[in-house]
Amino acid sequence: MRLYAVTDRAWLNGRTLPELVADAIAGGATFIQLREKHATHDEIVALARELMPICHAAGVPFVIDDEVEIAREVGADGVHVGQSDTACADARRLLGDGAIIGVSVQTVEEARAAQAAGADYLGVGALIPTPTKPDAVDVTSEELARICRAVDIPVVGIGGLRVETLDVLANSGVDGAAVVSALFAADDAQAAARSLRARLDEMLGGGESAFPALPPACAALPAVLAIAGSDSSGGAGIQADIKTVAAHGLFAETAVTALTAQNTMGVRNVLEATPTFIAEQIDAIFEDIPPAAIKIGMCPSAPVIEAVADALTRWSATNIVLDPVMVATSGARLIAEDAVHALEDRLIPLARLITPNMPEAEVLAGFEVRDEKDQERAAVALADRFGCAVLVKGGHGVHDANDVLALPPTETADVGAGVRTTWLRSPRVDTENTHGTGCTLSSAIACGLARGLGLEESVAAAKSYLMGALEAGLNLGAGSGPIDHMWAYRPHQKVPV
Ligand SMILES: Nc1ncnc2c1ncn2[C@@H]1O[C@H](COP(=O)(O)OP(=O)(O)O)[C@@H](O)[C@H]1O
Ligand SMILES: Cc1ncc(COP(=O)(O)O)c(N)n1
Ligand SMILES: [Mg+2]
Question: How far is the CA of 426 from the centre of ligand 2 (A)?
Fold first, then answer.
């Protein structure tokens, strides 16, 4: 609930509330509350019906202020109630266990009572004097911190919060900030949300998984091409790529390099496409719907690699993310040993980014990659050698799932400087179900690039999309199962914490 947006139609200036909400979500709002103090029942219902699909398309929960009956009528995710509104326990009885119920509180006693009555989260404030009520600071930072310590449900701070005043939340233990005018009175709600969200993530650390908002409907969606192998079980390879691209609201194209007979337990057989046929697929795509970015996955042999490299060179392809797939999560080899040279000589030089896991980085760098120091050393060595960006993924490490990104001077606009590194850290999700994580990550990065994001931004967004897919807890198959590419589209039953 990092950036919780409470609607207000006081500053529309010709814009509509759905437009502003879509902008807020595109900028990083993670929760929407419809708040209408003076509207009629029918107006609130109509607004809710417009806003709900926008929120749900982006995986953002939608609740309504006070109006429990309307929340039930329209099927909202829940309600937010104040101390003098419907009691939390009554709202729970009316809306059921699956609903999200938030309660406004100002003291530890109220907070404990709300939690005991079944609240899912608390809103605490007002924290800052507002221009209309300059002296009315209702809740001090100290009381806010006491409240956060007293309950185990998430708490959001509210009341006069703007980018410049978010500091009052520091070290309090809150999960996020609720804002009204900082978003809805802004000229550019998306830009406002982006700066609020950036400051909150910086202050509160990491940030919850933010699903990249979908691009608006238009006649020409950016296309993303996946050049990779098919995984019959649907969790990795071309299938993971298509699902990832579709989940990002973009248009997926494919050139299949090989078919695998595969499931969560292993790869049973591989049938390579002929180099000529692979080239024909790529030519057909570029002659008609040229992709804005390309992800390359499994390329099983030197002749396949040559064909892909020749075709991409012919078309002067850019924005290439190369996942140098060598071994499947299940342990099966997916590339001939003698093909590694072809990969190094022909394909890596075309890539903007390569994304080896630790064993693959070891093969490419020629030294052991066992810990974070090795990861960083390999990333820098490879970025130096190939002049492209390098993400050495840490999924095979022992502690957290930390990846290191090495950026060559061409990516940092720091001519004269050397390779710069930056770490993308996330906790390890406690699961065996990681089939296709590498495929998914590289496709998601290509999606960011296709939408015009920078490389670092694309990698960070992709990592948080991947975390959502892992955390969704899909559990299919007897081996290392697939992740949930569509996690952000599931109806939210619970407050994301
Ligand atoms: N259990 C996990 N929890 C969180 N992130 C993970 C987990 N396993 C892998 N990852 C992440 O998934 C991505 C793919 O990592 P990795 O497993 O190293 O590559 P590959 O799938 O190519 O073998 C990386 O961003 C890594 O940090
Ligand atoms: C066809 C195909 N391509 C790639 C992978 C790698 O999977 P992972 O993303 O788990 O490394 C795979 N298992 N199958
Ligand atoms: Mg991989």
Answer: 21
Which of 393, 440, 447, 468 does the annotation list as catalytic? 393
Ligand 1: does its nearest atom lie under 6 Å from the Cβ of 395? yes
pTM score, two decimals? 0.65
Domains of the chain: 3-204 (3.20.20.70), 223-485 (3.40.1190.20)
Ligand 1 close to Cβ of residue 436 (< 6 A)? no
One digit per residue, the tens of pLDDT, for the chain of length 497 reads 899 999 999 999 999 999 999 899 888 898 999 999 999 999 999 999 999 888 876 678 899 999 999 999 999 999 999 998 899 999 999 999 889 999 999 999 999 999 999 999 999 999 987 765 655 668 998 999 999 999 989 999 999 899 999 999 988 999 999 999 999 999 999 999 989 998 998 888 754 444 555 666 678 889 999 999 999 999 999 999 999 999 999 999 999 999 999 999 999 999 999 999 999 999 999 999 999 999 999 999 999 999 999 999 999 999 999 999 998 767 778 898 889 999 999 999 999 999 999 999 999 999 999 999 999 999 999 999 999 999 999 999 888 999 999 999 999 877 778 999 999 999 999 999 999 999 999 999 999 999 888 999 999 999 989 999 999 999 999 999 999 999 887 754 333 33
Annotation-wise, does 132 bind a ligand?
yes
CA distance 338 to 131: 70
CA of 235 to the centre of ligand 2 (A): 8
Q: How far does residue 65's CA lie from ligand 3's centre (Å)?
A: 45
Distance CA 436, CA 297 (A): 11
Out of 436, 448, 468, 481, the active site residue is 436
**Two structure tokens written together for 301:** 């042999």
Instruction: Tell me if 212 CB under 6 Å of ligand 1.
Output: no
Q: Of 102, 439, 448, 481, which one is the catalytic site residue?
A: 439
Report whether 461 contacts 210 (CB < 8 A): yes
Predicted ipTM of the assembly: 0.95
The response to whether residue 394 sits with its C-beta less than 6 Å from ligand 1 reads yes
Ligand 1 atom 18 nearest Cα: 395
Phi, then psi, of 441 in degrees rounded to 5: -60, -45
Residue 438 among the catalytic residues:
yes
Specify the long-range contacts of residues 403-407, CB closer than 8 Å, at least 24 apart: 403/375, 403/459, 403/463, 404/372, 404/375, 404/376, 404/379, 405/379, 405/455, 405/456, 405/459, 406/376, 406/379, 406/380, 406/382, 407/383, 407/455, 407/456
Instruction: Please work out whether the CB of residue 299 comes within 6 Å of at least one atom of ligand 2.
Output: no
C-beta of residue 30 within 8 angstroms of C-beta of residue 176: yes
Query: Which ligand is closest in space to the CA of residue 471?
Result: 1
